[in-house]
């Protein structure tokens, strides 16, 4: 089993979530976070005063998948998180982490049965 973590733009979460569900990935977690990458910080203005915004709001999607489904899930995420035809700075990152054990609390099922 693997844990797929994707950091994406907030405007792409609904689309990514719907497309993952269509592809058979129904269980996922979403949380709001802040961070910076290649975009770095930026200057914003409020009532004529400039101030630095160091971090940007992003969304974190996490889903557990069977090892055989990793590529399929990543393809869905990347295709639907990308903005524009060629993508843009700040579209996000996706990574995979090995998971040793999963237990469904309600039933006690373990492994892929618990996903």
TrEMBL record:
<dbReference type="Pfam" id="PF00543">
    <property type="entry name" value="P-II"/>
</dbReference>
<protein>
    <submittedName>
        <fullName>P-II family nitrogen regulator</fullName>
    </submittedName>
</protein>
<dbReference type="InterPro" id="IPR002187">
    <property type="entry name" value="N-reg_PII"/>
</dbReference>
<dbReference type="InterPro" id="IPR015867">
    <property type="entry name" value="N-reg_PII/ATP_PRibTrfase_C"/>
</dbReference>
<dbReference type="InterPro" id="IPR011322">
    <property type="entry name" value="N-reg_PII-like_a/b"/>
</dbReference>
